Amino acid sequence: MSKFEPIPVELNQIGKKIVDAAYTVHKNLDPGLLERVYEVCFCHELQKRGLHYQRQLTIPIVYDGIEFEEGLRLDVLVEGKVICELKALETVNPVWEAQILSHLKLTNN
To answer: Where are the domains of the chain?
Structure first.
């Protein structure tokens, strides 16, 4: 028995569109550009696929009963459900996994 629940159909469809948008940008742009360029193009591709997104979304941190606006900044939030953290590098740093897990925890996802 798996400890994980199956991915809902709607979320799976959103995920497929996100991956397709990311692949399209990756295929059409050469490496070496700033993350902001990839982000703008990625969001354009999301829009073409009918997905709603928010860019550079600030997520406040609540600590000791105080809400701090200087908290997290999500690169792209798609359909209010999927966090997309864009990186313009060739290798994956393990700390980025911890970063996205922290984002999920702090956004109650």
So the answer is: 9-106
